[in-house]
Write a structure and sequence with these properties.
By secondary structure, this protein is an all-alpha fold. About 85% of the residues lie in helices and about 0% in strands. The longest helix is centred in the middle third of the chain and has 46 residues.
Length: about 80
């Protein structure tokens, strides 16, 4: 039953009646839990992917700055 309800939330539900039936059959707590699980598995995944890309870019920038600092310490360009 909960899996069926998750599928209704996942697909956005066909209409408001499905959402009302879901709440009446399971209570608002179960509906909230299903929404949080769905949100965690979609939105948070995208945020994590973006953070990983940002970390890669920041590491590349840090490496470049370190190489520039080393170049300046050695007395300029080669």
């Amino acid at each position: 039953m909960l899996l069926l309800n998750y599928e209704i939330l996942k697909n956005g539900g066909d209409n408001m009646q499905e959402l009302i039936t879901l709440i009446m059959n399971n209570g608002i707590g179960v509906v909230c839990l299903a929404f949080i699980i769905y949100s965690q598995s979609t939105t948070m995944k995208k945020i994590t992917e973006n953070q990983e890309k940002t970390n890669v870019l920041l590491q590349a920038m840090t490496d470049r700055l370190e190489s520039l600092e080393d170049e300046v310490k050695r007395g300029g360009s080669k």
